[in-house]
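[job 0412] stage=complex_fold ligand=T4K status=START
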Amino acid sequence: MRRDNSENTPVYVTQPDLPPLEEFTASLKQIWGNKWLTNGGPFHQKFEEAIAEYLGVKYISVFSNGTLALVSALQALRITGEVITTPFSFVATTHSIWWNNIKPVFADIEPGFFNLDPEKVEAAITPQTTAIMPVHVYGNPCDVEKLRKIADTYGLKLIYDAAHAFGVKKNGSSILNFGDLVTLSFHATKVFNTVEGGAIICRDEKMKQRIDFLKNFGYAGETTVIEPGINAKMNELQAAYGLLQLKYVDSYIAKRKTISKKYRVQLEGIKGIRLLQDIEGVEHNYSYFPILIDSQGFGRTRDELNEELKKHNIFARKYFYPLISQFPTYRGLSSAKHENLPIAEKAAKEVLCLPIYPALELDSIDLICSIIREYGV
Ligand code: T4K
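[job 0412] stage=complex_fold status=DONE, emitting structure tokens
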């Protein structure tokens, strides 16, 4: 007999991890003493050094959020014309292109892990294309080798939106080391959060300097403005909080791994339910737990299952439905047509991200899995 959660606390798709309050209070005391709140203060400096070391990257510039990191990454590389990107992502990916007055061109995804399909990317290139912006969806690495080859062959820049890929490694090295620029999000809903926050990872010191100028209105010194930059600086409270988070993030990821394993054991083999397998040679961060519901096999649609879970106070999420290409701003684009994006359309119709976060109780996983098992027909 399964436990009923309908009267209990809601279980959401995620819940942020916070560092111990007393540790943060100690940091706040220092900030109060410093009277230095933003604009590249001591915590900002320390956090950049510490996070670069943690992630195994050489140059990183931290931001107030991941969206402004994306907007600034395109500006930093002076991208114009058209950028090829995925419709299967959070809307901020394409919005960052729009904010730079660039035309987004959607290419379809591959059916295994829902990342941009390199062949579809190549087919979408026009004389106006200047860059590719893939996303490591759910933290599963894109085909970085093939995408690099295409970018090099056609002389394009490669900007990865790695909002989901904090700490992910492939064959022992960080996935964040692939691409001309790579952006991260440290939003409250991410594996690693600074409440709001983000970053750009780049390959050399000059580029880091340019990015640092751009996130501070374009200021290069007291009286020089190089171009219209934006205010995207991470403040001292975020940076101090981030420094503490770095001490705990390995334990957060380890707990997520345990949850992911438990889901796998309980959901494997249910007719009509597909799980994304872990990839050999990849150290995952277990940021999301997507399942695919094939209504023919399962006997119910994804939306029906989602509603059933809600009755028990379980709030899974349809990341990413609707596709970005279906929003009014973008649906008029020729690349947004249904026939151009069949795999993405199917994924958006079938996917449901189940709750996963370190504090998720093992009982809740049992409940979620038993609802799914019993609801299928
Ligand atoms: N690129 C990609 C690929 C992204 O996924 C994102 C963000 C970005 C770029 C942009 O990065 P940022 O500018 O955000 O740094 C959430 C997040 O707001 C968004 O950051 C994230 N992707 C996206 C995938 O998910 P919503 O609309 O689903 O968030 P919300 O408020 O419904 O939160 C989801 C659940 O999390 C809630 O039901 C409860 C729980 N929650 C949320 C917050 C904010 C908490 O327990 N505590 C909290 O403080 O977009």
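The chain has a mean pLDDT of 97.
[job 0412] exit 0
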